[in-house]
Amino acid sequence: MDHAVVMAGGSGTRFWPESRARRSKQFLDLTGGGPMIRETLLRLFPVVPPERVWVVAGVKDAPHLSHRDLGIMKRHILLEPEGKNTAPAVAYAAAAVAREDPDAVVLATPADHAIGHVRAFQAVLRKGLRLARETGRFVTLGVPPTHPSTGYGYIERGKPFPGKVRGAFTVARFAEKPDLPTAKRFLRSGRFDWNSGLFLFRVATFADRLAKFLPGIDRVIRRAFLGDRAGFPKRLARAYRRMPSISIDYGILEKEKGILVLPANVGWSDLGTWSSLHEFLSGTGENVTFGDVILTDCRSVLVRTDSGVAAVLGMEDVVVVRSGDAVLVCPRARSEEVKGVLEEVRRRFPALA
User: Fold this and answer.
1) Residue 214: which of 97, 110, 84 has the closest Cα?
2) Which residue among 31, 214, 247, 340 has the highest number of C-beta atoms inside a 10 angstrom radius?
3) Inter-residue contact 66 to 13 (CB < 8 Å)
4) What is the CA radius of gyration of the chain?
5) What are the Cα distances from residue 276, in Å, to 31, 101, 281?
6) pTM for the full predicted model
7) DSSP symbols for 172-200
8) Could you state, in order of their start, the residue ranges of all structural domains in the chain?
């Protein structure tokens, strides 16, 4: 059967001051549609029923993970003892899914991305699940680029893949985040898609590649799942202490041969910065506001306040965010640098981080 794993262990440091140690990006309402993780789950439920949807997140995130609020089964909320990037997270989730359904096909997706065209997205997911089931290969979604972004990884499409499921290509290679001239070359070629971070696989295929490419993770995860349930948390904590911190891309996907990519023109954004949120919610030049905001003679600004009134006069291309006891003001074009600002906040005002 089909299962979905939602990876919810990230921190979203570029969304400070709303994203903080006690409340990560995926639990914020950034678009006005509710917490990002809840939006993600609601998009998945028509494709994979709630009883076969899983969430993997950190122990620190437990206060935000009510199974009733999320609409999934309590035992399908998997808490990592510590963050070790996506490869250990998916290894843990895949082993848990396989214990219930050894023949499962899994759709693994980040919890904090935004989709503009939900029905088209769901149609691509159904196609991807079928492709992974019928071929036994890893399948990933590639987003046709709309501009030469330097903030995304890329996937180069190879030859069209023959078969019953139309529209798939072999993956020629994965490319890391490029500089601007390279990104422009990628865009001109017409062969490159943005890497969405969403991929699909049979659990049997994943187990085989985990043992092949990341045997250290494979061994300790297998050991953690041996024995009684009462001792599982201690065994899992021991396993995580011994695991490397590594992404699924570096650990498996970039080493695997025969991966397939489905182009997905679905209005996707990873919402990585305040600027990308502005772009997702507006057209160029439009203002985006949340809360009690007064704008006078402003263009292309993003202003959010969770208390009091924010009045902005004569500004263009800026971000203003008031959250609790902290305020951020920066040019939209420099919102990528908020992560560095947070480092200074941690040093000087740790309670606000």
Assistant:
1) 84
2) 214
3) no
4) 21
5) 11, 38, 9
6) 0.93
7) EEEEPPPPHHHHHHHHHHT-EEEEEEEEE
8) 2-269, 274-352
Quickly list DSSP for 125-175. Answer: HHHHHHHHHHH-S-EEEEEPPSS--SSS-EEEEEEEPPSSSTT-EEEEEEE
As to burial, measured by CB atoms within 10 angstroms (0-12 exposed, 13-18 middle, 19+ buried), residue 101 is middle
pLDDT digits (tens, 9 = 90+) for 222-244: 999 998 888 999 999 999 999 99
Say if CB 139 and CB 173 are below 8 A apart. Answer: no
Cβ neighbour number for residue 79 with a 10 Å cutoff = 17
pLDDT tens digit sequence for 280-318: 998 666 999 999 999 999 999 999 999 999 999 999 999
Strands 302-313 and 318-323: parallel
Question: Euclidean distance between the first and final Cα of the chain, in Å?
Answer: 42
Cα 4 from Cα 54, distance rounded (Å) = 6
- Using omega within 30 degrees of 0 as the cis cutoff, is the peptide bond preceding 17 cis? yes
The pLDDT value given to residue 151: 85
315: Cα separation from own chain's centroid:
32
Determine the 3-state secondary structure of 284 from DSSP.
coil
Between CA 193 and CA 30 the distance in angstroms is: 25
Exposure string for 254-271, b = 16+ CB within 10 A, e = fewer: bebeebbbbbbebebbbb
If 0-12 CB within 10 Å is exposed, 13-18 middle and 19+ buried, where does residue 38 land? middle
Please, which residues have CB within 8 angstroms of residue 206's CB and are 6 or more apart in sequence? 90, 91, 94, 106
- Locate tokens 């905001």: which residue? 293
Phi, psi (5° rounding) for residue 337? Answer: -80, 0
- CATH architecture assigned to 2-269: Alpha-Beta Complex (3.90)
Q: Is the pLDDT of residue 221 over 80?
A: yes
SS3 assignment, position 352: helix
Name beta bridge partners: 193: 155
Tokens of 124: 């691509």
pLDDT in tens, 35-50: 999 999 999 999 999 9
